[in-house]
Design goal:
The protein is α/β, with parallel strands linked by helices and 442 residues long. The protein is 31% helix and 20% strand. The protein has 14 helices and 18 strands. β12 and β13 form a beta hairpin.
Length: 442
């Protein structure tokens, strides 16, 4: 069955120090990624409904549009009325609820014309129960002792587990992935539960895809060995720490420890994806306002200042404050919200300042001591003579923060107010609850 995966995982971990860098596209280093929940994005819930939002997303400044799976959804053992995006019935077709293959091709062309890039969700670990392979290639699937198809996880009752000991499956899966690059000119993939598929498969798939064009690959996983095949992994631990700080269960020291651990455990070219929300969190664990409360804006800003690439989930810029149904129609309520301007400003900061770029093109993060190490997170991003100072009050209490560090001498500009002021190594900053300051050395 899948026991050989543990051997591959161990081997990859032992080789972490000799990882070779993936062929990350040059355009990826200064981008912000945006997750598109197409079903809920508009009343129509299709490509055309989404297309009308492109000028707004261009204005917002997002650089990569990640579409949740666009494939037909299985009907056998379907969950809910519409089923899960992640129960894929056909890897080579488009869900007719969303439009046609030509509609998607035209959408990709328009997105490219606006200077943005497209990745689509790829579900390689399992298929729907009524995928054609169940009849044409039943040997592609894992089965129980009685020869019955089985879900990869008991609760995932609408899908069945693929068997990666079968190398013909590798060929078919890679051919399907190549189809979307050659036919639709997409720019890469977000790969669902990537760690449940052998890393060796992803290495082979990446090699074949890069022959077509340099692709951007995001793994829905958070372990270092994935960076042998992927450009970016989820920073789930940071996400959980932010939730716990908002609940009063952790503090700044947990962030510091986590970031220092990442420096040691991940190759310097690795991108980590930072986020306060995504489709899983929103639907199953609560909105950002349920989990973060008044701290939602503060932690959104933090995802842009720490390494590497921030994610915005559908509707966050409109203050999304409901759990979107996963298996039913449940459109986003698009409205004006202060987060739209917040994200626009932060995206521009990241894009225009190389210190905040991803991976090896970004800068070192170094922590600065302050007089309240439990509640105040203070650090600099440093590269050559360039410095950004970031100070976050990660608490519900206002504080006066004292900073003292030789790296802080010089003239700094407040990112928000554009006010210039001179700093002589030590200075005070007053921060309201869940507030932050970003200062850029001139």
């Amino acid at each position: 069955m899948k026991t050989f995966r543990n051997v591959l995982l161990l081997s990859a971990l032992l080789c972490i120090s000799v990882f070779s860098q993936t062929n990350t596209p040059d355009w990826a280093y200064d981008r912000t990624i945006y997750e598109v929940n197409l079903r809920q994005f508009s009343e129509q819930g299709n490509f055309e409904g989404f297309r009308k939002h492109l000028p707004r997303l261009k204005e917002l400044g997002v650089g990569i549009l990640w579409f949740m799976p666009i494939h037909p959804i299985g009907e056998l053992n379907r969950k809910g009325t519409l089923g899960s995006y992640y129960s894929v019935k056909d890897y080579l077709s488009v869900n007719p609820e969303f439009g046609s293959l030509d509609d998607f091709k035209n959408l990709v062309k328009e997105i490219h014309s606006l200077g943005m890039y497209v990745i689509i969700d790829w579900v390689a670990n399992h298929t729907a129960w009524d995928h054609s392979w169940t009849k044409s290639h039943p040997e592609f699937y894992n089965k129980d002792k009685d020869g019955n198809f089985i879900p990869p996880v008991d609760d995932w009752s609408d899908v069945i587990d693929l068997n990666y000991e079968n190398k013909e499956l590798w060929s078919e899966m890679i051919a399907s992935m190549k189809f979307w690059v050659t036919e639709c000119d997409i720019d890469g993939y977000r790969c669902d539960v990537a760690g449940m598929v052998p890393t060796a498969f992803w290495l082979e798939a990446r090699k074949e895809l890069d022959k077509l064009k340099p692709v951007f690959m995001l793994a829905e996983w958070d372990t270092p060995e994935m960076h042998s095949a992927f450009d970016m992994t989820y920073d789930w631990n940071m996400h959980k720490i932010m939730n716990d700080i908002a609940r009063g269960k952790k503090n700044v020291s947990d962030i510091i420890q986590h970031i220092e651990n990442d420096k040691s455990n991940y190759p310097d070219f690795a991108f980590r994806m930072q986020f306060t929300d995504n489709h899983d969190e929103n639907s199953w664990n609560g909105t950002v306002f349920e989990r973060l409360g008044d701290a939602a804006g503060c932690f959104a800003a933090l995802t842009f200042l720490i390494p590497d690439m921030p994610l915005i989930y559908s509707g966050q810029e409109a203050g999304l404050n409901k759990r979107l149904s996963f298996f039913e129609k449940d459109p986003i309520d698009w409205k004006d919200h202060k987060f739209s301007e917040l994200y626009k400003t932060l995206i521009e900061l990241k894009k225009s300042n190389e210190l905040l770029h991803c991976g090896i093109k970004g800068s070192n993060l170094e922590f600065i001591p302050n007089n309240n190490q439990e509640n105040i997170l203070s650090f600099v991003r440093v590269k050559d003579e360039k410095i950004i100072l970031a100070v976050f009050n990660l608490s519900g209490t206002p504080f006066e923060v004292s900073l003292n560090d030789k790296r802080l001498s010089g003239t700094f500009q407040d990112f928000l107010t554009k006010e210039n002021f001179k700093v002589e190594q030590s200075f005070l900053i007053k921060l309201d609850k869940w507030s932050w300051r970003i200062l850029i050395k001139q």
